[in-house]
Amino acid sequence: MSTPALKPGTPKKKLVARLKTRFVAFWTLTRLIVAVVAVAVVVAGTLAGVAAFEILYANKLRDTWAILYLDLERQANAARTRLAESCVPRLDQGPTGGATATYKLGATPTSPIEREAGSLPKKLRWFELGLKLSPRPDTWTIVRYGDQSFVAFLSGKKLYLWQEDVGGWMTKKGAVGGSAISAAHSKFYLVTHAGLLIHSNTPEINQSTFAQRPLVAAFVKRNLTNSQIEIPGGQAGPVYGFYLEISGTNLVLFAETSKAKALGVVWELGKRFSLILFGLLVSAVTLVALPATMLLHPIRELSQLAVHIGRGDFSRLPRNKGFGELGPLVESFRTMAQRLTSRDQAIGKLMEDRMAKLRMANELAIAKSLQDTFLRVPNLPADHPELKIMMRYQAADECAGDWYACHFDEASGDVTVAIADVSGHGVGSSMFTAIIAALFDERVETVGIAPIELMSSVNDRLRNLALDKIHVTMQIITWRKAENVLVVTNAGHPFPLLESGHGVEASVELVKLRSMPLGVEAEPKFGVATIKVPASFRLLLYTDGLIEGRPTGGGSIYGSRRLRRMFTEGASRDGEQVLDAIVSSWTSYLSGAPAGDDLCILLLERRVASASPEAKPDGEDETPAAAA
Length: 628
Description:
Blueprint: H1 12-87, E1 101-104, E2 113-118, E3 123-124, E4 140-145, E5 148-155, E6 158-163, H2 166-171, E7 186-192, E8 197-200, H3 214-222, E9 226-231, E10 239-245, E11 251-258, H4 259-262, H5 264-288, H6 292-310, H7 326-374, E12 387-394, E13 402-408, E14 415-422, H8 427-445, H9 451-465, E15 472-480, E16 485-491, E17 497-500, E18 507-510, E19 527-532, E20 537-542, H10 544-547, H11 560-569, H12 575-590, E21 599-606
Antiparallel strand pairs: 1-2, 1-6, 2-3, 4-5, 5-6, 7-8, 7-11, 9-10, 10-11, 12-21, 13-14, 14-15, 15-16, 16-19, 17-18, 17-20, 20-21
Helix pairs in contact: 1-5, 6-7, 7-8, 8-9
């Protein structure tokens, strides 16, 4: 505060008045700054205190719940221990086990029980003991006959009864664990599963009233072995309720505690905390008056920074470290801005990843849609009522590497069925199935199907495009209607199964045609056989995904022997039923393991009821292994 310059002739009274005005003005401004800062400190301190008190209250509340529940659990453990100490040693005291009475069970669970030893009635029904049915074996069950309580234990066909004052255990302090709070604060009552009140520490809860308690209703409704809830109360206020089923017995222990009394310590602690907080605030206001001006600049900077963060600009960081308690606040703003920046970058990266996955999903959907167009359900015209083609198809991924096709020659009535398996599965394999399908359709529409020429074309495409990285197993079956023969052409594909005849006279054999898959050799050799078949026959074609399936945890593969057995067992069944049985057997064998490869099964079936089986002529070209 500067001293005003004096002019010659200035009266002394005017000088004193001017000094007084500036002095008053100076202290008014200081007081205003101090008041604003003091109010801010009081508000901030109060909010911090309230938050701290809420945290403290929540922690103490959890501790109170835990203490009360642990007390209930201690009571239950002590009761279970008392049962074991009282009754277990008696089981070694001879045939009656030292029991008050021993009964033999009846023929049925509801039959009366007959006394073998003891002074109780000779015959008793379960309801006379307060039970609906016989107790569970090896379980301590508390029952009541008249006004006496007994401990029942079922061992084999014998029921042992020991007279015990179970309710008395609860009235003797320390007998079953004591209590964390006095009896005036809690209501304890012990109930059996059958609804018998064994003990209550208050006349308010008796046999006729305990079932109406909200805590008992919650136990029945929730169907839980233990729980803790807050029950709305009347004039006395809310009540904390606990219940616990004593394991190995038919007892349920209930406890109710007044919330006000249970949290009395917490409220007393809150009062002390409030006094301490008030003293701290007064001290803080006193101490903050002097450095108030040093706090204004960091606060103003933090305010401006908050505005930028609210607008989404996280690039600005506080330049000042802050004074006193503002240091952590400034550092928190700095950390928050940096984390928000990192979060925005992570969100951007996540959006890019999701867009990439979405594009991949769309591409897979398009590829699957294209593949579905050339995987058509085999369909024969109506003039072939005795010939059916059935199939089952299951892809391991969205797109598959298995392929099948069927062609009916209207001029000759011949039927050609083709099946192929591209190594692997997924989009890459599905691309080559599309190539095979295109080559098949091209030959159908132009020169006709010639199996060897078609397989050679597929082999050339594979070697030109896949560069020995992909191979294909393929099989083409042609049924010549006029001659009733099957022409089988194989390129490394699993051997088909041929069923000759029908019903009990049917026989199943493996058509073994050994050859190499396509794409391996430049000039492959194919296995070819012409098979004379009877009027009724079945031919099962499949890919290796069927016979090479493995169960969860590894183990042996499904195998061709198991497949042959399933196919043989279905000789008298309909073709669809046979396929369903094979797929069901395969799925059960995998035991939930994901299919490691695609699955494709084709069944060519001809049933002529009036025709007798034809004998196969001798000759190498008429056996399953004969190569043409």
